[in-house]
Design brief:
The strands form 5 sheets. This protein has a 7-stranded mixed sheet with strand order 4-12-11-10-9-5-6, sandwiched between helices. The mean pLDDT is about 95. The chain folds into 2 domains: about 40-270, Aspartate Aminotransferase, domain 2 (3-Layer(aba) Sandwich); about 280-405, Alpha-Beta Complex (Aspartate Aminotransferase, domain 1). The chain has helices at about 5-25, 35-45, 65-80, 95-105, 130-135, 150-160, 180-190, 200-205, 240-255, 265-300, 325-335, 365-370, 375-390, 395-405, 420-425, and strands spanning about 25, 55, 60, 85-90, 110-115, 135-140, 145, 150, 165-170, 195, 220-225, 235-240, 305, 315-320, 340, 340-345, 360-365. It is α/β, with parallel strands linked by helices and about 425 residues long.
C-alpha cells in the first residue's frame, strides 16, 4: 500500500470517529466532556511545539517568557476558582497528580486509608495502581453498598484505630456527597493528611453544587481537568498549605513530569473563566439532568442505585443490570445504538465478574454541555429502555438516536464570541 493510500485511510478513520462520536452519539461516559470552540482555538497554539521544565521564571529552557506569564496567570485563576491559596497545573493527568501527592505526603510502607475499588475508587488509589507501586499499604474504609458511599462512622473508627499517613477520598464512581468533614476531623486527630481526588466532580465544585473539600477540611485536591470540568485533558493539584505546595512542586518536576504540554495551559485558563461565569448554571443543570434520567430509568424498570436518597447528587447514575445480561452485554448493545456508556463493577460483584460486571455507569455532563435538559432525559431514558429492556434492534434505535442528536450541535455555557476572529487575532494554528 502506498504512502498516499495509507494517508487516505488514516484520515478516513479520523473523519469517521469525529462524525460518529462528535455528531451521531449520545455520549454518557462519566469521565469525558467536550471543550468549547474558544478553548480549542487557544489549545491549538504554537506552545504545543515547545518545551518547559520547572516552574515559571525558573526554567531549564530559554524561549518561555510568554509561557511563564501564561502559566503563572492560569495557576492563579485556577486557584481562585476553587478558593485555594496554591495550584500546580503541571501534572499531565489526574493519575500523575495523585502520584505526585502520594509521594509528597507519604513514603513506602506507610498506610493509606482508601475506598475499595468496588466502592468506586480509582485504580490509582489501590494496590494495583500508583499507590501500591509507591509501596503504600492500602487499608479500606467501609462502605454502604447500596449507595456506593462511605460509611462515616466506620471510616472514622478505622482512621482512629490504624492512624494512616494519608486518607484518600473522592472516587471514579461517586453519586453522593462524601463525609469529608467528619473524616478530616478524625484524620487530624491522628496526624493524617486528607487527599480528595476530585477528578469527576471538579466542575460541580466549581459550580458550587458539590461542597468544596478544602473548605470541609481536606488538605489537598487532586484532579483531572476534563470531566465535569470541561477543559483540555490534564491534571492539577490544589491546596492552601504552603508546606504541602512546596513539597508537591518539587516532585511534579523532576519526578513525574518533564515538559507539561504547554498548549493546554491557556486552554485550561479559558475553561476556568468559563466555569467562573457559567459554572453555577452548568453544574445545576447537570445534577437536574442526572436526577431526571435516574427517575425515568427507574420508572422503566431499571434497578438504579441510591433510590432511598434520590438516586444521585452528582453527574452520575448507576444501574445494576445483572438481570439484563450484565454490564458488558448492555454496554455493547447500547454502543450498537450509538449510546456510549461503560460497564462498572459493583460492591456485590465477585472477582470472576470483572469481564461482565453487574453495573453500568452513566454521566450526563457532556450531553448537558450540548444543551440537553430534563425533557431530553426522557428521550434518552426511552432509547436505553428500548435497547436493554424491550430488546429492540439496536440498528433501528441508532437511526432514531442520530436524528435526535442532530438537534444538539452547539456547545453551551461558553463565551459568546466570534471564534474564527478570535483564532485569527491570537494566531491560533486553527487559523492557518
Amino acid at each position: 500500500m502506498s504512502g498516499d493510500d495509507e494517508l487516505d485511510n488514516l484520515l478516513k478513520l479520523v473523519r469517521l470517529h469525529n462524525t460518529w462520536r462528535g455528531k451521531e452519539c449520545i455520549n454518557l461516559i462519566a469521565s469525558e466532556n467536550v471543550t468549547s470552540p474558544l478553548v480549542d482555538a487557544v489549545y491549538f497554539s504554537d506552545a504545543m511545539h515547545r518545551y518547559a521544565e520547572g516552574l515559571p521564571f525558573k526554567r531549564f529552557y530559554q524561549g518561555t517568557k510568554y509561557v511563564d506569564e501564561i502559566e503563572d496567570r492560569v495557576s492563579r485563576i485556577f486557584a481562585e476558582l476553587f478558593k485555594a491559596r496554591y495550584s500546580d497545573i503541571r501534572a499531565v493527568s489526574g493519575t500523575i497528580a495523585n502520584a505526585t501527592t502520594f509521594a509528597a505526603l507519604a513514603k513506602g510502607g506507610d498506610e493509606a486509608a482508601v475506598i475499595p475499588l468496588p466502592g468506586g475508587a480509582h485504580v490509582s488509589h489501590s494496590k494495583y495502581g500508583i499507590l501500591g507501586r509507591l509501596g503504600l499499604q492500602p487499608v479500606e474504609v467501609p462502605i454502604i453498598p447500596e449507595e456506593l458511599g462511605i460509611d462515616p462512622e466506620g471510616a472514622v473508627k478505622l482512621i482512629r484505630e490504624r492512624s494512616p499517613k494519608i486518607v484518600v477520598l473522592g472516587a471514579s464512581v461517586i453519586i453522593f456527597h462524601q463525609p469529608v468533614k467528619e473524616i478530616s476531623e478524625a484524620a487530624s486527630e491522628v496526624g493524617a493528611k486528607v487527599i480528595f481526588d476530585a477528578a469527576h466532580i471538579l466542575g460541580l465544585i466549581a459550580g458550587q453544587v458539590y461542597p468544596n473539600p478544602l473548605a470541609e477540611g481536606a488538605d489537598v485536591i487532586t484532579t483531572s481537568t476534563h470531566k465535569t470540568f470541561p477543559g483540555p485533558q490534564g491534571g492539577a493539584i490544589l491546596t492552601s498549605s504552603e508546606e504541602i505546595y512546596e513539597k508537591i512542586a518539587k516532585i511534579v518536576f523532576p519526578v513525574f513530569v518533564s515538559n507539561h504540554h504547554l498548549h493546554r495551559l491557556a486552554a485550561l485558563g479559558v475553561t476556568a473563566l468559563e466555569m467562573k461565569k457559567f459554572g453555577k448554571s452548568y453544574a445545576a443543570q447537570i445534577v437536574k439532568n442526572a436526577r431526571k434520567l435516574a427517575e425515568e430509568l427507574h420508572s422503566r424498570g431499571f434497578k438504579v442505585l441510591g433510590e432511598g436518597r434520590g438516586f444521585t447528587e452528582t453527574h452520575q447514575v448507576l444501574l445494576d443490570v445483572k438481570g439484563d445480561g450484565g454490564g458488558a452485554r448492555v454496554a455493547e448493545s447500547l454502543e450498537e445504538a450509538n449510546i456510549i456508556v461503560n460497564k462498572n463493577i459493583l460492591p456485590w460483584d465477585k472477582p470472576s465478574d470483572i469481564a461482565n460486571p453487574s453495573g453500568i455507569r452513566i454521566g450526563v455532563q457532556e450531553v448537558t454541555r450540548w444543551g440537553m435538559s430534563e425533557g431530553d432525559m426522557i428521550e434518552v431514558a426511552e432509547f436505553i429502555y428500548r435497547v436493554v429492556k424491550r430488546r429492540d434492534d439496536p440498528n433501528m434505535v441508532r437511526e432514531d438516536v442520530i436524528r435526535f442528536r442532530k438537534e444538539f450541535t452547539r456547545i453551551h455555557y461558553t463565551f459568546d464570541v466570534d471564534v474564527k476572529r478570535a483564532a485569527e487575532e491570537i494566531g491560533s494554528l486553527l487559523s492557518r
